[in-house]
Design goal:
Chain lengths: 403, 175
C-alpha cells in the first residue's frame, strides 16, 4: 500500500495535499457551533447535486410534459417521491445554512481584512444559489412556478431602454413558455456544478487566509490552532447528524411544509393565482421590492435596484465596517445593531408573505408602512454600522491577546 | 533605440492579437446569444382571431394571443361613462379613453400587469370599477388605465383590427 502511495505521490503529491489542507490543516481551537454551517451547506450541496442528477433522469423539460413528469416521479418512479422530497426540502435547509453562515460572518467580522476576497466569493455563491433555486422552482411547472417565473423575469423589464427586449430574449418568446422552461432546466442543471467549482475557490481563499474565530484575532502559533482532523472532522460530522434528524423529519413526515399548495395546479398562463408568494427564502427581498412604491413611474426600477442592492451591499460591507475590532463579541453597539438587523429580516419576511394590501389591527397600520420601515432598517444597519465605526462612536471592550 | 522599437512592435502585436481574439469571441458568441431570441415558430403565432358576437354588454372573455392573455370586454354605457369621466382626472399615465378603443363599447387589453406581468382579475374587481392585479395591488379603471398601486403604465392595448363586424383580429402578421 505505502509503495503504491509513494509511487503516486512522486507524480501527484496527494498525501501532502491531504495533510496540509485537510488532516493537519491548522484550525483555530475556539471555533463554536456557528462554524459548522459552512460544512453543512456543502453537505446539502452534495445531496442536491446527487438527488438532482437522478431526478433529471426522469424529468421532462417540456411545457406540455413537465408537470406530468413530476407527478410521474412522485407516483411511478421507484423512490421518486424520496428523491423529489429530498431535493425540495434540501433547498430549504440549504438557505437556512447559508443565511446562518452569512450572519455568522457578519457577527464575528469574518468579512474583514484579510478575508475580503473570501467574503466576496461567498456573496457570488449566494447570488448563484438564488438563481439556481429560482430556476429550479420553475421546473415543476405549477401555478406558483409559472407566475413566480413571470414576476421575476419581468423585473428585467424595469431596466431602461433594453429592458423589454431583454425579457423577450430571456423568455425566447412573448411570455414565459416552453423555450423558457427548457433553458431554465439546462441552467438549473449547469449552475450547481459551477457553484460546486466556486465553492472550491471559496475554500482556496479560506485556506490562504485561514479561518476567523469567535474572538476575531489572528491565531498565531500552535497553541492557538488544532489540526482539522480529528477535532473538526468529528465536530462537523456531529453537525451533519443533527441536520439529518431535522431533514429526515421534514422529508418523511412534513414534506410539503415548505411547498405551496397552488404549485400542484398545472401552470395556466391565462390566470394568475389570487395570492402569489415566492419561496420563504426570498420573502425578505420580495418585501423590499414591494416596499418601494412611492416613487411613481420610477417605483418599479427603484424596487428592483433596492432588491438587488440589498444583497450586493454585502460586497462593500468590508469597507463600511471601520472598527479596529473584528468580532462583535467586544463591540456592544454593533452587537445590538446586528440583532436588530436579524429581527428586522424576519419582519421583512413576514411582510413579504402577506398580500400587499393587508394591514394590522383592522386597517390601523397598513402593511406597506411596516414594509417601508423595515426596508429602511435593513439598509440603515449598513449605514449606521459605518457611522458608528467610522466616527469612533463605539468604544470596543478590551480584546484578548491570544485565543 | 533598437530595443525600444522592438518593444513597440511587440506591444502592437500583443494588442492586435488580443483585439482580434476579443472580436472573434464576440462574433462567435452572437449565434449563441441569438439562439435565445424567439424562434420562427414562436414568431409565427402573431395573430389571434376572436368571434365577438356572443359577448353581451358587461361580459368579458380572456383569449390567448402570443401565449399571453387578452381581455375582450363589451362595456356597458356606465363603464364607458366612467372611463370618459376619468379623462379629466389626474392620471399616473395620462391617456384619453377615446384613444384606447376603436369602438367605444369594445375594450381590448393585454391582460399583463405593467408592474411585474401578472394577469389582473376580471372587470369589476378593482377600485374604479376596473381590474385588480392580485400580485402587488395595482388598480386599473374601465379603460385599463392605472389608477392606484405600483404599476407604472396603463394596461397595453394590443394592435387589433376588425375583419368583419363580429371578428376581432388581435396582433399584426409579421413580415
Amino acid at each position: 500500500m505505502s509503495t503504491i502511495m509513494e509511487w503516486i505521490d512522486k507524480r501527484l503529491p496527494v498525501t501532502e495535499l491531504i495533510k496540509s489542507q485537510a488532516t493537519e490543516y491548522p484550525t483555530p481551537k475556539n471555533l463554536n457551533y456557528w462554524w459548522n454551517f459552512g460544512s453543512l451547506a456543502l453537505t446539502v450541496l452534495i445531496i442536491m447535486i446527487a438527488t438532482g442528477l437522478f431526478l433529471a433522469m426522469h424529468y421532462k423539460p417540456d411545457a406540455a410534459l413537465a408537470f406530468k413528469s413530476v407527478e410521474h416521479i412522485m407516483r411511478d418512479v421507484n423512490f421518486g417521491w424520496l428523491l423529489r422530497y429530498m431535493h425540495a426540502n434540501g433547498a430549504t435547509f440549504f438557505f437556512i445554512f447559508v443565511y446562518i453562515h452569512i450572519l455568522r460572518g457578519m457577527y464575528y467580522g469574518s468579512y474583514r481584512a484579510p478575508r475580503e476576497i473570501l467574503w466576496w466569493i461567498g456573496v457570488v455563491i449566494f447570488f448563484m444559489l438564488m438563481g439556481t433555486a429560482f430556476m429550479g422552482y420553475v421546473l415543476p411547472w405549477g401555478q406558483m412556478s409559472y407566475w413566480g417565473a413571470a414576476v421575476i423575469t419581468n423585473l428585467m423589464s424595469a431596466i431602461p431602454v433594453v429592458g423589454n427586449d431583454l425579457v423577450i430574449w430571456i423568455w425566447g418568446g412573448f411570455s414565459v413558455a416552453d423555450p423558457t422552461l427548457n433553458r431554465f432546466f439546462v441552467l438549473h442543471f449547469l449552475l450547481p456544478l459551477l457553484v460546486f467549482g466556486v465553492v472550491f475557490v471559496h475554500l482556496w481563499a479560506l485556506h490562504a487566509v485561514h479561518s476567523n474565530n469567535p474572538v476575531g484575532i489572528d491565531a498565531h502559533d500552535d497553541k492557538d490552532n488544532l489540526p482539522f482532523h480529528p477535532y473538526y472532522t468529528i465536530k462537523d460530522l456531529y453537525g451533519v447528524g443533527v441536520f439529518l434528524i431535522f431533514y429526515c423529519y421534514f422529508v418523511f413526515f412534513a414534506p410539503n411544509a415548505f411547498l405551496e399548495a397552488d404549485n400542484y395546479i398545472p401552470a395556466n398562463p391565462m390566470q394568475t393565482p389570487a395570492h402569489i408568494v415566492p419561496e420563504w427564502y426570498f420573502l425578505p427581498f420580495y418585501a423590499i421590492l414591494r416596499s418601494i412604491d412611492f416613487l411613481g413611474s420610477f417605483s418599479k426600477l427603484a424596487g428592483v435596484i433596492a432588491m438587488v442592492f440589498s444583497i450586493a451591499i454585502l460586497f462593500i460591507l468590508p469597507f463600511l465596517d471601520r472598527s479596529p475590532v473584528r468580532s462583535f463579541r467586544y463591540r456592544p453597539l454593533s452587537k445590538q445593531l446586528f440583532w436588530i438587523f436579524v429581527a428586522n429580516a424576519f419582519v421583512l419576511g413576514w411582510v413579504g408573505y402577506n398580500p400587499p394590501d393587508a394591514s394590522l389591527f383592522s386597517g390601523a397600520i397598513p402593511l406597506i408602512l411596516i414594509g417601508r420601515t423595515s426596508t429602511a432598517i435593513y439598509f440603515g444597519y449598513f449605514v449606521i454600522l459605518w457611522l458608528v465605526t467610522a466616527l469612533d462612536i463605539e468604544k470596543p471592550r478590551p480584546v484578548p491577546k491570544c485565543l | 533605440m533598437a530595443i525600444e522599437v522592438e518593444e513597440n512592435r511587440r506591444d502592437f502585436l500583443i494588442l492586435a492579437t488580443s483585439a482580434f481574439g476579443v472580436a472573434g469571441v464576440a462574433a462567435a458568441a452572437w449565434p449563441f446569444i441569438r439562439s435565445w431570441s424567439p424562434s420562427a415558430d414562436v414568431l409565427a403565432q402573431a395573430t389571434s382571431e376572436v368571434d365577438i358576437s356572443p359577448l353581451q354588454p358587461g361580459q368579458m372573455i380572456t383569449v390567448p394571443w402570443q401565449g399571453k392573455p387578452v381581455f375582450v370586454l363589451r362595456r356597458t354605457p356606465e363603464m364607458i361613462a366612467s372611463a370618459q369621466k376619468g379623462d379629466s382626472e389626474s392620471l399616473p399615465d395620462p391617456a384619453k379613453d377615446a384613444d384606447r378603443v376603436k369602438r367605444p363599447e369594445l375594450l381590448v387589453l393585454l391582460a399583463v400587469c405593467t408592474h411585474l406581468g401578472c394577469v389582473p382579475q376580471p372587470i369589476g374587481t378593482g377600485d374604479y370599477g376596473g381590474f385588480l392585479c392580485p400580485c402587488h395591488g395595482s388598480h386599473y379603471d374601465t379603460s385599463g388605465r392605472i389608477r392606484k398601486g405600483p404599476a407604472p403604465k396603463n394596461l397595453e392595448v394590443p394592435h387589433y383590427d376588425f375583419k368583419d363586424a363580429n371578428t376581432l383580429v388581435i396582433g399584426k402578421a409579421l413580415a
